[in-house]
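Researcher: Hi, I'm a grad student and pretty new to this. My advisor asked me to get structures for two proteins we've been looking at. I'm not sure of the right format, so I'll just paste the first sequence and hope you can take it from there.
Model: That works fine. Here's the first sequence with its structure tokens right after it:
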Amino acid sequence: YWDRIDADCDGEQDLVIYTNMALGGTGGLQVIYGTEGGGFPDTTAIEVLDYKPILGARSVLSDVTGDGVPDLVVGCGGRDVIEIFAGKPGQRLQELYGTGHDSADRANKRLPVRPWAHLWLPHAISDSWFRSTAAFNLGDADGDGVDEIWGTSYPYLMGYSARDILDSLADIVYRGDSYRDVQISSLRVSGFPVYGFCNQGRIGYYRIGGRPNEGSYTRYSLPHAAGFRCEHATGVTEVGEPPKKPSLGLQLEPNPAGDHQQIKWEPQEGIAEVVVHTLSGEFCWRSEHPGLQGMAIWETSRVSSGVYTVTLNLGRITETVTTTITH
């Protein structure tokens, strides 16, 4: 199935195609990144993820960390685990996860098999539970602005809520015969959150109870500052002038370049990170500079002639441009 969301939180809608598989198979994900003005991009803006290395069977893009950026949630039924790869503004999926065939996450120098959070399903602890697929996008059940993480271990539907911190304990456990991938509603009774589930005409309710002792479960701190939210994550804008995107004014001089190239940006506070890759994604060069410096020099005489991408990360803004090197 497919969805239309802003997958990289750049203010443009993207087309997400899910290729989820049943237990015993593996799935994947394809994203066609949108362009400014809503047009369809060419094939260089299509990214494909393959979950075979982690035995992933079902995935969703859902904001489970509350920063307005879609996070990648992969249900690995064959391994009895749900893995969450936390997104950040401007980061595309292959930067976050890798391709599946490439073990290196070059943007963060980590492996795609090392996600932000790793939730074991009950069958991994006791085989008296059924093994099944996992990862459903049922939305925000308790209305706190953060989507829950949903999985199954038949005949149970389980929900995990991140809020300010995520832990390995299910906040919601509901027993039913089958589940539909629909939004879940919520209500409050005497000040306590109560969850309502629609399941083949029957309604089940669950109220959050107390927690066990600290240290008896795994806790995951949010990967971003408390209260941070991507500026593009708001809903429909008011009628009038569309909001201007923040820009670093990234420029390359000369372009094409021979033995060296100046990488320029508008000076501002922070650390400016410059990263260069080939068009096929191979890492070439990385350097850091004071943001107020406004310029860096890339010694292009050390690389072969060809086309490269230059990415500038400064604060919460990321810009990428292409350049041609000729010798």
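Researcher: Oh nice, that was easy. Here's the second one.
Model: And its structure:
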Amino acid sequence: MGSSDGIRLVLSGGETGGHLYPALAIADALLEALPGSDAIYIGSTGRVDMGKTIGTKYVSHSLDISGYGRGALLANITLPWKVFKSTVQASLLLRKYRPHVVMGVGAFPSIPVLLAARLHNIPSLILEPNALPGLANKLLARMVQRICVSCSGMKNFFPAGKIVFTGTPVRQALLQYTVTCQQARVEFGIPQAAKTLLVTGGSAGSKTINRFVLDNLSQLASNIDYLLWQTGENEHSRIREYLDERIPANCTIVPYFNDMAKAYAAADLVISSAGAASLAELALLGKPVLIIPDPDVTERHQHKNTQSLFKAGVLVQSDPQTLSAQTVEEIIALLSNCENLKKLGENIRQLARPQASQLIVDQILQLAERGTELSNGGG
């Protein structure tokens, strides 16, 4: 493979922003490093519209597969058939696109795609951004050539010789981050001097965070200048219906921010869940944040993600079940303390890994080069 040649990369994973955004970041970095390259995303239909997130820049496909249901064993009866069927579908897609490399970014849909890559002798790698690996990546670790990680201690889960520390890739729009606070507030209709709180539980939303805000919305709205609230697609209709006409005038409630960089820019303080992609974004931007790990995610891995945050001096609500009016008072007090906000921003910025996408692309290009040498009969 000549250095000026573009390559084709297939990325595969789940349908939430925690999978889609790192995949997009990797795809964009690949095109920047090697113009003429192309990327295809293979996922599944689910909680977030892949087409809406990915847009028209990259092609996406959906497989008929869902994750392993830990709490509903009967629902898993058809899972072996779905894995087989999806592997066949993935194999046909790989035959169509003939990628140089296949990469899994987490979640069950990546399993049939990486299995198909193995059958076609296509080099592959996975991304594990969390401190506690998911089931899919644990199953795939033995068959891939590289494992890109963001946390220490991964030798407890994966073959040590395959591990490469890269960090979690962040969207290009956030890396460039040219929008100012003033511009963002004009877009949202927020007064320039308003102390603004952004609440987000990730693209799919967090029931725990949403319930906390809903229970304390009157107190929050009465004591802070402005509230931006991303509920997630699943929860939005329920919340709007519950509030009806009682939405405070200084509160904007949306299911999803198409331009998250703008929402971050407008905020003085962020309340966020502990998804790996969200944490990487907040660290890169140095945003003051109160982290509330979502207890409902698989294997409670968001709690593991907060361990490095504690050490860095980032605010973490370690037990989401204890959220109360006292937490609201702490948020209100924090918004009025510029020094503490500045310190929190500096603390989380210590965890930033701005070169993550480029480091992962380096691994992809190495595997593509190796795959080309092997197909040409090289050693």
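Researcher: Is there anything I should tell my advisor about the second?
Model: You could mention this: The radius of gyration is 21 Å.
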